[in-house]
Amino acid sequence: MTAVRLAAIDATGLSLDALVVGLTGGKRDAKIDIPASSGLGAAERRRILDALRTLAVKPKTGEAIKLPGVAGVEAPLIVCVPIGATADEITPELLRRAAGAGTMSLNGIERVGIAMPGDTPAEVAATAQGAMLGSYRFESFRGAGTPTPVRGPKTVTVLTGTHRDRHVREAVRQAEIVAQEVCRARDLVNTPPSALHPKELAAQALAAVAGLDVTTQVLDERGLKRGKFGGILAVGQGSANSPRLVRLAYRPARSKIHVALVGKGITFDSGGLSLKPPTAMETMKCDMGGAAAVIAATAAIARLGLPASVTTYAACAENMPSGTAQRPGDVLTTYGGRTVEVLNTDAEGRLVLADALVRAGEDVPDVIIDVATLTGAQMVALGNRISAVMGNDDELRDDIVHSAAMVGEQFWPMPLPVELRESLDSPIADIANIGDRMGGMLTAGLFLQDFISDDTAWAHLDIAGPAFNEAAPHGYTPKGGTGVAVRTLVQIVRDLADSNSL
Ligand code: BES
Ligand code: MN
Ligand code: ZN
Predict the structure, then answer these.
(1) Contact 77, 17 (CB under 8 A)
(2) Is 387 in the pocket of ligand 1 (CB under 6 A)?
(3) pLDDT tens for the chain, residues 1 to 502
(4) Which of 115, 211, 287, 426 makes an SS bond possible with 266, Cβ 3.0 to 4.6 Å?
(5) Per the residue annotation, which of 276, 338, 385, 479 is the catalytic one?
(6) CA-to-CA distance for 312 and 99, rounded, in angstroms?
(7) Is 350 a catalytic residue?
(8) What count of other Cβ atoms lies within 10 Å of the Cβ of residue 309?
(9) Cβ 462 under 6 angstroms from ligand 1
């Protein structure tokens, strides 16, 4: 894991291998510039801008333009990252993306300095977090003979005039914890499904909170049978790798609110007997992205010592077709007794979540938030960068959209129209697991709502698209697992605790 440090802007003797420098302007007729607050001297800034002019490159946001070092800068390589704004338009998220694009572009380079504009706690922390997130690589499955192993920066040193400021240091410390947990979620998603069966995912959940003030419980197949968790068992019954239900409970001495987090943990989604076509299966190791997010967020919340009780459930199963798999037409009984007619075994996420949501309700939390790579319809509606949030409480839903924006994640509110609910009616059971295909993300949300008591505020985050980046890397977001929702979950728990401290 890449370490982050702070240093004075005029620090010497850091022996940097590369320096990332933020560029402002470049859009419309705004002149390309390096603001004085990035800490480089006037002469050095002029030399870098001259070099850019000589190369005649037109800086584009998201790019990383590499130059040989210039006199006065103690690094042999300079990486210019266009921020995409003038100095007075800069936001923390723009800094996060630009810093991330810088470290993302550097392979096999150990000590990287970052000189970006902005010296408030929020700005320095965003720069540090972006640099860390952009340094992430997933290389554990390369062979021994890999000719050029891909290595991200070892240390990132953020150069700032406020490196001694107590608030800046604390903001960076917290941003680093969150970045580490985002990277944990990415690792879990990127791990091949053969190396992350439900049992291993449960073990990883326990490892994530080892040594923290968190109590843990894992139900294996026997425990699930004893507890009558019919949804998780039915989804898992076709696989040789039996399902698990993980429970993590963080109970700080000072607690302002109790939040339950519930994650979909399908370690591989083949569709079951309602088998997916081959190309649709290629990315289905990502189907535990919701579980990864709630596990990592719980670890972050406990490490940060936030004053909120958190009870987290990860519903882990592998969805496979076999002679023991559930069939379209089967009826299962979920935890708590409601029955479901399974018409499509590929709508499995809602089945494992049904059990976990009812179980979470027994802890009597103030708020329940579930996170799931639940529907292809989410991607049709919002694409691969914007996640959806639905729920039974408009205020909570909008709070989540707001908390997400605060930390640079994009969530958009979606409705749960009551009139779609009847499409889930079953002629023989309490509910069917598929409804109207139109508005498929919403019917999935309505299905989940049946397992929530009306007097508990609940939100459902569908991260199907954003959990896994199949396209080119952008900003601090690599290919593969993105760790989406971790930052939002930490922030909403922070914000809910804050607003409850009256
Ligand atoms: N895990 C998938 C949803 C998904 C699709 C996540 C693409 C990430 C990328 C989910 O289990 C699923 O298969 N949903 C079906 C539901 C349908 C059968 C009602 C879907 O969306 O097609
Ligand atoms: Mn599925
Ligand atoms: Zn799935």
Answers:
(1) yes
(2) no
(3) 899 999 988 777 888 999 999 999 987 778 999 998 887 889 999 999 999 999 998 889 999 999 999 999 989 999 999 999 999 999 999 999 999 999 999 999 999 999 999 999 999 999 999 999 999 999 999 988 877 778 999 999 999 999 999 999 999 999 999 999 999 999 999 999 999 999 999 999 999 999 999 999 999 999 999 999 999 999 999 999 999 999 999 999 999 999 999 999 999 999 999 999 999 999 999 999 999 999 999 999 999 999 999 999 999 999 999 999 999 999 999 999 999 999 999 999 999 999 999 999 999 999 999 999 999 999 999 999 999 999 999 999 999 999 999 999 999 999 999 999 999 999 999 999 999 999 999 999 999 999 999 999 999 999 999 999 999 999 999 999 999 999 999 999 999 999 986 4
(4) 287
(5) 276
(6) 32
(7) yes
(8) 21
(9) no
**Which atom from ligand 1 is nearest to the alpha carbon of 344?**
18
Strands 244-250 and 214-219, how do they pair? antiparallel
For residue 196, report the phi and psi dihedrals to the nearest 5 degrees. -140, 70
- Tell me how far apart the alpha carbons of residues 46 and 42 are, in angstroms, rounded to a whole number: 6
- With contact defined as beta carbons under 8 Å apart, do 89 and 117 qualify? no
Measured from the alpha carbon of residue 265, the closest ligand is 3
List the strands of the sheet with 155-159, edge to edge.
3-7, 155-159, 111-115, 18-23, 77-82, 65-68
Quote the pTM value: 0.98
| CB-CB neighbours of 154 under 10 Å | 14
Burial of 143 (0-12, 13-18, 19+ CB in 10 A): exposed
- C-alpha 458/C-alpha 126 separation (Å) is 29
Number of neighbours of residue 58 by Cβ within 10 angstroms: 11
Query: Which structure tokens are listed for 182?
Result: 């985002």
Tokens at 283, concatenated: 């990315």
Look-up: residue for tokens 């010497």?
12
Q: Which residue has 């933020």 as its token pair?
A: 22
Check if the beta carbon of residue 338 is closer than 8 Å to that of residue 450: yes
Neighbours of ion ligand 3 (CB under 5 A): 266, 269, 287, 349
